[in-house]
User: Which sequence fits this backbone?
């Protein structure tokens, strides 16, 4: 709640054309930028449990997305730099619950269903301010409607997994997270330059740790779901909530 | 007018630095490290799965203690020291003399491997081990539940800078008293190594999964839980409601998990917090 208030406060102040709410003379200017979502193509490489996975469909309900100043401590930068962080840095605190997002810098409140096997999807335009961005919070919202591609879930993945012996598991699985994915790395000193935020979902991270042999009880069509206490469901949920499954980049220039 | 403003400015400087005082930093492992982490009873903190843990060693390399404001450094530790906070404390880490008597709102320190570290209160053999193996933290202890005993000896090479330390009661940093001395404790929280969630404030202490990891090697379960055995436990094989990473990336097994928790052990003036920055 405190964070939400902070966000409202920051954005309200940002309604002025120029402001200095960071203190010490630093100024932030109001700006906006588009946010888009795409996914990496799933390669034919087997996952950690030896399964080759071919997807028929993959959908996710994305939004809101909130941007914060606080950096991430627990995961490494892709390429080491001077003053680099590795697990939950910046404004994190040394306790469970230690990722502290810090100042809110922007938000996009819309929610969209994204076809991760399709083209790049535009989520909308974030209301934001200039500043030192460190992370974002990504909400995978469980939709109200039970129809459509997601069938009432935040994530739905359909496909076939094949083990080294040729055994196949056709699966239709879903996931819902109890809370947003917080602490996704996005380190960017953002001024007034033209560009957009691209959020790339790494589907391999979602699926890499799943042992499809633990999926039991196929339906009449031979399609498996993941039982609630199975390793497969556990692995899927841990994959979907893994912050490193989301790569956030700043793409220069206007949208095509 | 200009002279008047200059005079005010000088007056301000004098007022800000009127006199000097001393600051002594200590470190302390509290009862959990010095004595025991008990099994939980009622609302009291402890292992919810019935284990107790006693440390035989809890060795940390403390360095880079710094007192400053955003634009001025008052003092900085030049010599890293190795402490065994299982030994009775608090013990002195560093004393800074004749600092300007005023509020210094930024304190930071590091727990990191340092090849040139010297002993604080740790045994010479432990100091040598830390330097030889490039360790920042080493914990040796025994977990007990019923008639079962598991030993552990885990060394970590984590390099963590604890910044912006703040006490809930005393605020950020330290206020140096004029002609006086202030003591600041760098508190080490040993219970954090056994939390079952990286993010949740409701994390609980558990040891069952770690005890069950003791099964590798020719001898199988030999009563010693190694980091290699923890690395063999994929988090997806543990109950979904335990060992949640809260989205922290690349924490995939129990060894990753404990290593992440080690970074949260450094605290400030008891329950005070710092911002741990991994390097």
Assistant:
């Amino acid at each position: 709640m405190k964070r939400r208030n902070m966000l409202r406060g920051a954005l309200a102040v940002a309604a002025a054309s120029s402001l200095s709410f960071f203190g010490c003379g630093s100024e932030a200017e109001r700006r906006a930028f588009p946010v888009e979502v795409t996914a990496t193509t799933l390669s034919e490489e087997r996952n950690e449990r030896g399964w080759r996975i071919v997807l028929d469909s993959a959908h996710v309900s994305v939004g809101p997305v909130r941007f914060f100043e606080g950096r991430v401590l627990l995961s490494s930068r892709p390429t080491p730099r001077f003053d680099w962080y590795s697990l939950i840095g910046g404004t994190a605190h040394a306790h469970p619950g230690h990722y502290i997002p810090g100042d809110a810098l922007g938000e996009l409140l819309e929610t969209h269903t994204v076809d991760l096997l399709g083209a790049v999807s535009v989520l909308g335009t974030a209301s934001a301010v200039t500043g030192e961005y460190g992370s974002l919070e990504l909400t995978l919202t469980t939709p109200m409607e039970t129809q459509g591609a997601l069938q009432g879930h935040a994530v739905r993945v359909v496909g076939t997994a094949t083990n080294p012996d040729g055994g196949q598991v056709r699966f239709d699985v879903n996931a819902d997270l109890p809370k947003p994915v917080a602490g996704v790395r996005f380190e960017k000193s953002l001024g007034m330059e033209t560009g957009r935020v691209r959020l790339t979902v790494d589907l391999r991270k979602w699926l890499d740790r799943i042992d499809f042999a633990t999926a039991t009880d196929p339906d009449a069509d031979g399609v498996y779901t993941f039982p609630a206490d199975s390793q497969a469901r556990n692995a899927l949920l841990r994959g979907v909530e893994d912050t490193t499954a989301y790569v956030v980049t700043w793409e220069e220039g206007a949208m095509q | 007018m200009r002279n008047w403003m200059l005079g005010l400015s000088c007056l301000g400087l004098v007022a800000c630095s009127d006199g000097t005082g001393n600051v002594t930093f200590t470190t302390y492992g509290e009862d959990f490290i010095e004595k025991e982490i008990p099994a939980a009873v009622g609302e009291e903190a402890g292992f919810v799965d019935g284990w107790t843990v006693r440390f035989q060693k809890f060795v940390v390399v403390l360095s880079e203690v710094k007192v400053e404001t955003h634009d001025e450094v008052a003092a900085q530790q030049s010599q890293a020291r190795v402490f065994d906070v299982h030994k009775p404390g608090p013990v002195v880490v560093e004393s800074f003399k004749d600092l300007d008597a005023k509020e210094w709102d930024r304190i930071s320190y590091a727990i990191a491997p340092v090849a040139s570290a010297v002993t604080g209160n740790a045994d010479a053999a432990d100091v040598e081990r830390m330097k030889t193996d490039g360790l920042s933290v080493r914990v040796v202890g025994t977990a007990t539940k019923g008639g079962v005993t598991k030993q552990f000896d885990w060394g970590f090479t984590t390099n963590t800078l604890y910044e912006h330390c703040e006490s809930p009661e005393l605020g950020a940093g330290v206020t140096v008293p004029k002609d006086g001395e202030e003591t600041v404790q760098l508190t080490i929280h040993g219970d954090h190594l056994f939390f079952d969630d990286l993010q949740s404030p409701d994390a609980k202490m558990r040891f069952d999964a770690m005890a069950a990891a003791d099964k590798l090697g020719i001898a199988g379960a030999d009563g010693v839980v190694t980091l290699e055995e923890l690395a063999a436990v994929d988090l997806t094989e543990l109950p979904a409601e335990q060992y949640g990473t809260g989205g922290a990336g690349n924490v995939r097994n129990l060894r990753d998990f404990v290593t992440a928790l080690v970074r949260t052990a450094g605290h400030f003036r008891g329950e005070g917090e710092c911002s741990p920055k991994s390097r």
In short: Helices of chain B lie at 2-16, 30-34, 124-133, 208-212, 227-231, 254-262. The two ends of chain B are 50 Å apart (CA to CA).
